[in-house]
Every structure is written in structure tokens, then in C-alpha cells.
UniProtKB/TrEMBL annotation, chain A:
Protein name as annotated: Sulfate ABC transporter permease
Record-stated family: Belongs to the binding-protein-dependent transport system permease family.
Principal location class: membrane
Localization of this protein: Cell membrane
Membrane topology of this protein: Multi-pass membrane protein
The keyword Membrane appears for this protein: yes
Automatic annotation (TrEMBL), chain B:
Protein name: Sulfate ABC transporter ATP-binding protein
Ranges for domain ABC transporter: 3-224
Protein keywords: ATP-binding, Nucleotide-binding, Transport
One example GO MF annotation: ATP hydrolysis activity
Organism per entry: Pseudarthrobacter enclensis
CDD domains documented for this protein: ABC_NrtD_SsuB_transporters
Entry-linked PANTHER family: ALIPHATIC SULFONATES IMPORT ATP-BINDING PROTEIN SSUB, TAURINE IMPORT ATP-BINDING PROTEIN-RELATED
InterPro entries in alphabetical order: AAA+_ATPase (IPR003593), ABC_transporter-like_ATP-bd (IPR003439), ABC_transporter-like_CS (IPR017871), ABC_transporter_ATP-bind (IPR050166), P-loop_NTPase (IPR027417)
Length: 318, 241
């Protein structure tokens, strides 16, 4: 692109004779003198009106601040424990919990529980996405369906999915089916709702453009509506994952035994049964840790990329 | 005649008619400026010609393949680059993948944005976005191009340039253009014919021819602008209480 420093005067020796020199002020007539002149003017204006590109650097405060916050919290915890207000077996210190995690690791229990839960959580979540996405699109695009089932879906999102555990145990027994059923009931409604609210927030102009460009119903749904609703959909997916993970833990805590494998929830329940507070705390921290890790490693980068590409990141505190 | 409007009327529900007895003929390759004050149903008329809305009375004849449309805001899809926006229009028209690439690049170069194809809409200035939007509507490859105040939101410098640009592209592509505006200068600058639409109900009340003379002679163009402005004000004054 040519630089914007091209003086306008250079293009004045006109290709076409200009009868009235005041025409530039009036802009009622042609203001450029030919194709080349026009190209040059436009390119100058384009570079004047576009922002210079900014380089992205690693922002250390993004890493250091959360780590610092974590260190402060652990220090406060240790300080409280060393005051000796409560018995050590009721409120173990950070070092006791880390020690217990080491023991669990050596027994192989920690890895087993993590893998079992993560695998179930991810599989359950992915199946939920596969079910909820077409259903959500259908509900969002077809008004009678939306009116009929919308309130039910919103209601299901409010209903704690733990409430399904007793029913699931009766229907499926102590099997993996019980766990997955509870995960689905937690995740599917919230993904559907996220997608629907994402679709609701699409500027009406986008659909009109789609119509004008000749999109049929399916093309409209896949090429216009779904990408336009992506930020809302991603919000739904995040919430859906959170609901999957929570439901999974609830199911694992309540439904123990049978062919149900040993997950983090089972570990937590075992700690409770043995009245071993270090095991309970270890399980809680692991469950929390997985949640934070998935957010940081999966959702945050995707969301950031999505927003930056659409120019929605400027001025945010992310 | 690509567009024939006969006694066209439109009302929404039981309200007063927005358009009433609109008559117009627009010839192939013609550039017609549709001028009117706010609320005269200009956009409604354009939507009817585009097939986005149906008239409540009268008859209209439009090309069977429909019309390309350019909106006031560029209405580019923010999740696609400039090139992908144009390619989407080609794709929805059924153009094959390999051809889409070359055609999109040609169109980008036509609007002098050959180097900006990989930018996203938010990285482009208002004028550049509107040019991508123009390229996208040309990608639809319809003989008839409808434009709904496409330059209204742009700064004066950019708008003057885009007027030249649009005139050049119109001549190069031979499109039939119906250009809606509330700016008398813009109508005189661009249209071969200026149709004045009255307000509430909208109706074509007068039309003027703009000759090649007006394109280069600012005095002549200024005179015509004055005449049309006076007539437009007369229309507006009718609504004073």
C-alpha cells in the first residue's frame, strides 16, 4: 500500500479539464481526476483511517497476579492452622493436605480418580454438546417449538441435576449409565439455553443480509446464525461444562459401588467415611483444580481468540 | 425495463399508508436516485423491490433473479475477513471453491482493496467496510443493485471519494442502480435521474434528469440542487401544523 504522504497537489495536473475550480468544495461534481488519482486518494485515506497494527506481547501480570493471589491464600490458611484454634485432624494445614496427596499418588488412587472423573466429564460433556447444539438451533430457529419447549428447558436448567440421582439409580442401577444420565440432565439444558440466548442477541441485520444473499434455511442456520451466535454459544458451553462437572461430582458422591468406577467424588466420599479430613480436602482441591485448569487451558484461549477476531476485546479487563 | 412499479401501495396493519400509488420505470443500466425526507417510505420501497416485503396494492415487475442489496451500515459478518465476506456471497450463489478465490480477489481489486482482503471488518475504516460491502453486493452478480443510503454514516471526505468510486464501478459493470438517499447533493451527484418521493404517503411527485454537464459544471449542478431542495422543502412544509 502506498504511503499516505502523497501530496494531493501532485494529482492536480488534471487528466480531464476541470471547468470550475470551486467544485472541490461543493462536491456536487466529480472530485477526482481519473482512475489512478482515485486509487491514490483512497489508499491514502485508508491508511490514515486504519489503526497501526499492534504487537501482542506476553503480559506477565496475567500469570504473576493469580499466582501471587494463590500464595497469599495458602499463607493465610497456614497462619490460621498454626494459631491452633481447631484440632489439627479437623482443620489440616496445607502441608498435611499436600502430604496426603503424595500418599494418594503413590497408592495410584489419585491418578485413577482423576482419570476416571475427567474421562467421564469430557465424554459426558461432548455427548451433551452433540445433542444440545442441533436441538438448540432448532428451538432458536423455529418459533412454535421455542414457545412450546422454551419454558421447560429453562426450568430444567434451574432444577439441580442432583435431583435426578435417585431416579437414575432406580432406573439404571449403580452403573456408569447413572452417572452419564445425571451429567446430561445438567449440561444439555444449559448448553441449549446458552445457544438460544446467543441466537437472540444476533443483530437482525445479519439475517437480512443472509436473506438478500440468497441463503436457504439450512445455510442461514449454519453460515449465519451459528457463527453469529458463537460468543453466546461459547458462554453456554462453559456453563454446560461447569454443570457437567458439578453433576458428575454429585453423582459420584451419592452413587458409590456397583460397576461405577472410582472417581474424585468417590474419593471425597471415602474420605468422609473414614473421617480423614486430609483426603476430603485433597479431593475438594483436586476437583477445583480440574475446573480451573479446564477454564484456563481450554475455554479462556478459545474465548479470547473469538473476541479478538471480532474486535470485541478492546477495553475489557481480561 | 428491469423495474416497473405500477400504482404501488403499502400499509402496515391498519395504519396510514406508507406508500401510495407509486409509479416508476427504471431502465436497464440506469442510475436512479430515490430522494425523500425521512419517513417517506424510501427504505420500504427498496425492500419491496428487493422482495424483502410485499406490497399491499398495485403491481411491480422486477428481475426474476432478484436484486443485490447494499445497506446503510456495511453489515459485514464480523467473524469473516473481508475476502471471506465476499466469498460467502459467491458461495451462497453456488460458485465453486476455486473460482470463488479468484473472483473475490478481482472484486477486492475493483474496489481498490486488493491488499486488505485478510483484514477483519473491525480493522477496516468505515469507508473501507462500505467498499467491501459494495464488492459483496457485486459478488451477487445481479443486474439490479439496490442501495439504501450506503454512504450516510461516512465522513464528508470519504463520501466524496466513494461517489467517484461508485460512478466508476457503475460504468465498468453496467449495473442498474437504485440509490436511496435523503441528501439532495448526493442524489444530484450520482443519479442520472432523481425521483422525489413525498412523505406520508410516499409517492413519486417529481423527477429531474441529471446530464453529463452537471457532472463537471458545479454551477449547473448547484442550480439543480437548489431547485430540488426547494421542491423537497415544499413537500416537508405541507406537513406543518
Amino acid at each position: 500500500m502506498p504511503s499516505n504522504s502523497t501530496p494531493l497537489a501532485e494529482s492536480e495536473p488534471a487528466v480531464e479539464p476541470v471547468r470550475n475550480p470551486e467544485h472541490v468544495h461543493a462536491a456536487l461534481t466529480r472530485t477526482s481526476t481519473g482512475k489512478e488519482d482515485l486509487r491514490e486518494l483512497e489508499s491514502g485515506l485508508d491508511s490514515l483511517q486504519s489503526d497501526a497494527e499492534r504487537k501482542h506481547r506476553i503480559d506477565w501480570s496475567r500469570i504473576l497476579l493469580p499466582v501471587a493471589a494463590l500464595v497469599v491464600l495458602v499463607l493465610i490458611w497456614q497462619f490460621y492452622v498454626s494459631l491452633g484454634v481447631k484440632r489439627r485432624d479437623l482443620v489440616p494445614g496445607p502441608l498435611d493436605v499436600v502430604g496426603q496427596m503424595g500418599v494418594l499418588w503413590n497408592e495410584g488412587k489419585l491418578q485413577e480418580a482423576m482419570l476416571t472423573s475427567l474421562q467421564r466429564g469430557l465424554v459426558g460433556f461432548l455427548i451433551s454438546v452433540a445433542i444440545a447444539t442441533p436441538v438448540g438451533l432448532l428451538l432458536a430457529q423455529v418459533a412454535p417449538l421455542r414457545r412450546a419447549f422454551g419454558p421447560l428447558i429453562s426450568g430444567l436448567q434451574v432444577l439441580p441435576s442432583v435431583a435426578w440421582v435417585p431416579a437414575a439409580i432406580i432406573w439404571f442401577g449403580l452403573t456408569d449409565a447413572t452417572v452419564y444420565f445425571v451429567v446430561f440432565m445438567g449440561a444439555i439444558p444449559s448448553i441449549i439455553n446458552g445457544l438460544i440466548s446467543g441466537v437472540d442477541q444476533i443483530p437482525p441485520q445479519f439475517r437480512r443480509v443472509g436473506t438478500v444473499l440468497g441463503a436457504n434455511r439450512i445455510q442461514m442456520a449454519l453460515q449465519v446464525v451459528l457463527p453469529a451466535a458463537l460468543p453466546g454459544y461459547l458462554g453456554g458451553l462453559k456453563q454446560g461444562w461447569a454443570f457437567s462437572w458439578r453433576s458428575l461430582m454429585a453423582a459420584e458422591i451419592i452413587a458409590v459401588g456397583g460397576t461405577i468406577g472410582f472417581g474424585l467424588g468417590s474419593l471425597l466420599d471415602q474420605g468422609r467415611a473414614l473421617s480423614d479430613m486430609t483426603v476430603v480436602m485433597s479431593a475438594i482441591l483436586l476437583i477445583l483444580g480440574v475446573g480451573i485448569l479446564i477454564e484456563l487451558l481450554v475455554f479462556a484461549p478459545i474465548e479470547k481468540r473469538l473476541l479478538r477476531r471480532r474486535g470485541l476485546l478492546a477495553g475489557s479487563t481480561r | 425495463m428491469p423495474v416497473v412499479l405500477e400504482n404501488l401501495g403499502k400499509r402496515f396493519g391498519d395504519g396510514a399508508p406508507v406508500l401510495d400509488d407509486v409509479n416508476a420505470n427504471i431502465g436497464k443500466g440506469e442510475f436512479v436516485a430515490l430522494l425523500g425526507a425521512s419517513g417517506c417510505g424510501k427504505s420500504t420501497l427498496l425492500n419491496i423491490i428487493a422482495g424483502l416485503e410485499a406490497p399491499t396494492s398495485g403491481a411491480l415487475e422486477v428481475p426474476s433473479d432478484g436484486a443485490a442489496f447494499m445497506f446503510q451500515d456495511a453489515a459485514l459478518f464480523p467473524w469473516l475477513t473481508a475476502r471471506e465476506n465476499i466469498e460467502l456471497a459467491l458461495k451462497l450463489r453456488g460458485v465453486g471453491k476455486a473460482e470463488r478465490r479468484t473472483k473475490a480477489q478481482e472484486l477486492l481489486e475493483l474496489v481498490h482493496l486488493g491488499a486488505a482482503g485478510d483484514k477483519r471488518p473491525h480493522e477496516l475504516s468505515g469507508g473501507m467496510r462500505q467498499r467491501v460491502s459494495l464488492a459483496r453486493s457485486l459478488a451477487q452478480d445481479r443486474q439490479l443493485l439496490l442501495m439504501d443510503e450506503p454512504f450516510a454514516a461516512l465522513d464528508a471526505i470519504t463520501r466524496d471519494l466513494l461517489h467517484d468510486e461508485l460512478e466508476r464501478i457503475w460504468k465498468e459493470t453496467g449495473r442498474t442502480i437504485v440509490f436511496v438517499t435523503h441528501n439532495v447533493r448526493e442524489a444530484v451527484r450520482l443519479g442520472q435521474r432523481v425521483l422525489l418521493l413525498s412523505s406520508r404517503p410516499g409517492r413519486v411527485v417529481q423527477e429531474w434528469a441529471v446530464t453529463e454537464e452537471h457532472r463537471t459544471d458545479a454551477g449547473l449542478a448547484g442550480q439543480l440542487t437548489g431547485v430540488i431542495t426547494a421542491r423537497l422543502r415544499e413537500e416537508i412544509r405541507r406537513h406543518a401544523k
